[in-house]
Records
---
Amino acid sequence: MPEKYNPPGGGIRGLCAFWNGFIPGKPKFTEKDYPKLNGKVVIVTGATSGVGYEVAKSLLGSTNAKVYLFNRSEQKTIDVIKRLEVEVANEYNKSELNVDYILVDYADLPSIKPAAEQFLNKEERLDLIIHNAGIMAPPLGSKTKQGFDLQLGTNDFGPHLLQKFLDPLIIKTSKRNKPGETRIVWVSSFAHFSAPLGGVHYSDPNFTKTEASPMQIYGQSKALNIIQARAWNSKHPDGSNIISVSLCPGFLNTELQRHGGSFQLKMSQYLHKARFGAYTELFAAFAPEVKTGDHIESFGKVTKSRKDLEDPKAISKGWEFLDENVKPYL
């Protein structure tokens, strides 16, 4: 018999997060509040659809930053840039986009170093990265090219490895900027409340011998995103000017739901548009009240993640687990 997976539950914090997901109120920090970012460079991963697309559009329309889209598909990215040109012109009355793209596949870790090198050969600064790319609840048994659980590999190992290659440049950039202007945003989810105690099912992190639902496995990957946000600064004392922050973008109707089955389809009518998730991510990226290690909920509210993910031992163990698994690809 396979081992049975029993997550600890969310408690009062989980109930509050669930309520806020459905009834969050209106976003108060929007395009009118964003800095202009003249001369700044921003990376948004997973920007071909959903929240990532809306984040890229808002950045291109309301700021003067150079925006890099880190995506898996070249043709989809070319199509997206054409769509952005039309929508930014219509919505923001802005005719020229300062946008470029880099191809990377988080489900194939050897593809990440060449992608990072391509970016580093083009740019001499990095002011903001939003780790938005991810996958939710694919069929059980889905794997990366290296044999990791697909959600663990795509949502955690991929962005962790990319960030390692970009750390020297973003730290160097932060020393030119004011404290807090340089940020690393890790997109987590309410689903982290279904993660194992401490965030990771260490005895079987790829869930090859453990009975669990795709959403519970997704929860593990999203707990690790919170650990990444909380651990980054303690592991990079020379990056003290940088804010590293996690968030749940909201309960949203996006393509991320495509593997969710009939229940997710029924729930979609109660979910919010992707545009609102962009407000959450850009609140984390720009709002002055955000501090390193914070967790943000929809649509711009500083709140609390699950309590055990605040434990320094759990945070350190999670970071070491990530480091160990990406080390062969550095």
Note: The chain has a mean pLDDT of 92.
---
Amino acid sequence: MTDFFDSDFWHAFKGSPVAIIAFSVVVLLVGGALLAPWLAPTNPFDMGALNLMNGFTPPLTDNAFTGERFVLGTDDQGRDLLSAILYGLRVSLFVGFSAVGLALVLGVSLGLLAGYVGGWLDAFIMRVADVQVTFPSILIAMLIFGVAQGVLPPEARSELAIGVLILSIGLSEWVQFARTVRGTTLVEKEKEYVQAAKLMGLGRFQIMRKHILPNVLGPVLVIATITLALAIIAEATLSFLGVGAPPTEPSLGTLISIGQDFLFSGEWWILLFPALTLLSLALAVNLLGDWLRDTLNPRLQ
């Protein structure tokens, strides 16, 4: 731990106000999501506990019927917006981290294989990546989500909606991981330590796992951070369009979709606060990813 606080990475972090603010925002929002069961005044997923008489209560205003007051107001169902945002953050972050994890595992594995094995396997993987990168990732995610929902029986669609959402976004974001890892692998496999491992009789998969993989994790970390912001936005977009998280477990995108219906009728807070939360999270993660890229890439120093 002492070595970490003496490292160049820590000193670079301390000297960057943007990185400190972005990291603080991410920690605040992630911490709020993790502690939602203890921080949230109510459980917005418990439909039986909702009181429709609390609907459309403005922020910091006593409800005309029940006399209850809510910090961020309520939506049309009487759901406390602060609680809904904290629980919605849990859904959005869970989908984002899971989708990035899937894209990372798939992309790194295919990139290692393409770069180290080469030949027809490299050509096939890269051609698939080239075809996929020509389409916006959100369209690919919508296509995968639609196909998966069509295959599933109707009674299981709502229960498996989150899993299908993770699969859709993960399969639409693996290309950048694969391309980056392939390029790094092409360089690393020609170095002396890899040749020495071959002479020692190590197999392909042992060399890729023990020797090449640790040397490609730096760029992968940067891509994962930036992709996390893209995955969260993709989840919000799909949920906003009504093909993402179910209404019974609303994510930030679902809350924004609900709020948009009441924006022009005067209930502005139903849209504003979830949208600001999503904007703050995506912007902070993006800024943190940009800082990591600049810090971990010596060519940009």
Note: The domain at 2-300 is CATH 1.10.3720.10 (MetI-like fold).
---
Amino acid sequence: MSSAREAVLGRVREALRGTERTPLSAVPRDYRRTRPAADLVALFCETVSDYQATVDRVAAAAVVTRLAEVARSAGARRLLIPEGAPQAWSPELAEEFELVGPAADTAALEQVDAVITTAAVGIASTGTIVLDHGPGQGRRAATLVPDLHLCVVAEDQVADDVPAALSRLDPARPTTFISGPSATSDIELNRVEGVHGPRTLHVLVTPAT
């Protein structure tokens, strides 16, 4: 007596009998490299917003002002800015906020209200930000413990899709993929934010440098 699996496979074989198979090399792969979106940056902003993150497009000269406004409105007092971030950020923000050293241990990180980073890549099709923890991005713990993550992404860092983004990354480096603020839900679909990382993600998109 044949199993259900054998019966299904038998029907598939019968349906395929006499048909000509298309070699894998002939299967079009353009979908991996092209996308109908005319404006990748606009698509990136839209998809990031879909994940309940906040997105602002700001001029390069207005970045520090906007960072201060967002931190202030969130009630943040202690900020962490990783090494390698633009030099103009720290002096101006230090006039209003307490800046915590990037080497802060876990206990000190728990007292940090917001972390401000750059990014390695932004993915337009998925609304994802990728950190490879290079200059300006800090170590992973620094972007997971504070309640607010402010991330600055340049327009020329926005890639089309995941394959395009991966081609820009060094596989030897640690990477963190961020799609919106940290969130989870229970069996009744009650959403809880901030369990595994920042409760709030605010992205500033700036012109290409």
Note: The longest strand covers residues 148-154.
